[in-house]
Amino acid sequence: MRIARAIVGAMALLSVASCSLTKTSFDECKTNEQCRGAFGNLQVCGGDGICEGIKPNARCSVAFPEDLLARPKNFPKAIIVGVLMDRSVESQRAREDAVRLAARQVNEEKGIDGRGFGVVFCDVAEDVKYDSLKRTEAAVASARYLADSVGVPAIVGPSSSTDAIAVFDALKTSNVLVISPSATSPALTGRDVASATDASPGLLWRTAPPDTLQGEAMSRHIRAAFPQVSSVAVINERGPYGDALAKVFADSFAREGRTVKPFAFDTGSTGQRDAAVVDAGGSALPVVLFISSQTSDAVAFLNSAATLQSYATVNMFLTDSAANKDLLSGASGARALFPRVAGSRPAVPAGPVFELFRTSFTAAFKQDPNTFSFVPHTFDAAWLTFYGAAYALKRENNINGGAIARGLRRLSAGAEVRIGPGSWTGIVTDLGAGKTVNVTGASGVLDFDPVTEETSGLVDIWKISADGAAIETLSTIDPR
């Protein structure tokens, strides 16, 4: 009996020692990275210095694969990226689907050396079911959750320029790459680094051309379409998107001695917006240009104009944020105005890469991506993130924002290749060997300038179809 008790006691002591060693070696922590390194994805260092699973976030509760958040142990080596979209807008829900499609395709190609990709989608809509945050505040809070708790090295989105700048500024010390598919404000150019290099790349990217091109195209179209018009009214939201685009337009419009009459409103202030619409109509100018990053503002503009006699003969011009199905459904009561409405947007893509994407997207989600804005640009943003991660893992053995950005700088020269699953293995091999490739995406050629890290492209002038059911291209302008 004494011998048996001694054996049991010794075993108990060994068990306690073993637990203590395990706790010291693995459970105790000072950083989230230590926990993710020891236990895999979706682990953080808790307030008591012990590793634990991340706390659920209602805004960031949707993932791909669907059980990524519920069963993280099934995906211990997955490379997880984040997405920030406003799910109250149908076009942004379609952009989420574009990321799902890209992630599904790359995982079907076995990812990088068998490591697949995961995606955590965060809804940045202003919605009381989550909290009392405004949209930009929600974007920043969600981005911090993705960076700090989930540990993503890159985020696709957000969509608006104001939100993209706020998110980047909040994460600038976190080494997380932010790539927006639709933030077009010139204010983003040089926001991170004045002159990018391989050693010091920028962490704020976008797949849509900047508004320096769109503002010029808008001015050219209005001058050509209304040659006798010497002055137009410009209603714009204040902020990086509205102020910058309004200035580019005004500067170009002034080159022939024409002028603009400005009417600005604070983002989110419906009272100021509605007052600006009334005042612009009262100016008796024949053309009103309305600039907002939010489709909902464009909808409200048309619905208000439809009730005002001052807009009975006014021609109205909108921008890329309005070129989608949400405008047509939201402003259906203003259909009488549709023949006098036009707008601008980055040119609708064409060619084999886009057609393959369109076919795959339609088959997967039973919707035509042409119905919405910036969906191909979002697909490309996701694939670029995957390519950047491949470079980071193969060449630097460390997947972080800076390494991914250096990978993106390797995608605009060399042999031309088409974005998509068919070229994945070849591109990964080339990037791993230190080569460069020149990718063409669903949104078009993606030739990023090595200094500004910006791309460029054509601009479409669009109109609303005669039946009010679709956005159609009226003409295409090369403003470069």
The separation of the N and C termini measures: 92 Å
Shape label: globular
Give the structural class: alpha/beta
Query: How many strands?
Result: 18
% residues in beta strands: 15-25%
Helical fraction equals: 40-55%
Average predicted confidence as pLDDT: 92
Major sheet summary line: 7 strands, mixed
Alpha plus pi helix count: 14
- pLDDT < 50 stretches: 1-25
> What's the gyration radius in Å?
25 Å
Strand order of the largest sheet: 10-9-11-12-13-17-18
Annotation keywords:
alpha/beta; 18 strands; globular; 40% helix; 7-stranded mixed beta sheet; disordered N terminus; 18% strand
Structure write-up:
The chain is an alpha/beta fold. It is built from 14 helices and 18 strands. It has helices at 2-27, 32-39, 90-108, 135-150, 161-171, 211-225, 240-253, 270-282, 295-305, 325-330, 352-365, 375-396, 401-408, 424-432, and strands at 43-45, 51-53, 62-64, 79-85, 117-123, 154-156, 177-180, 204-206, 231-237, 259-265, 287-291, 315-318, 341-346, 415-418, 437-441, 444-445, 459-464, 471-477.
Write the layout of secondary structure elements.
Layout (H helix, E strand, L loop, with lengths): L1 H26 L4 H8 L3 E3 L5 E3 L8 E3 L14 E7 L4 H19 L8 E7 L11 H16 L3 E3 L4 H11 L5 E4 L23 E3 L4 H15 L5 E7 L2 H14 L5 E7 L4 H13 L4 E5 L3 H11 L9 E4 L6 H6 L10 E6 L5 H14 L9 H22 L4 H8 L6 E4 L5 H9 L4 E5 L2 E2 L13 E6 L6 E7 L3
Parallel strand pairs: 4-5, 4-6, 6-7, 7-8, 9-10, 9-11, 11-12, 12-13, 14-15
Antiparallel strand pairs: 1-2, 3-5, 13-17, 15-16, 17-18
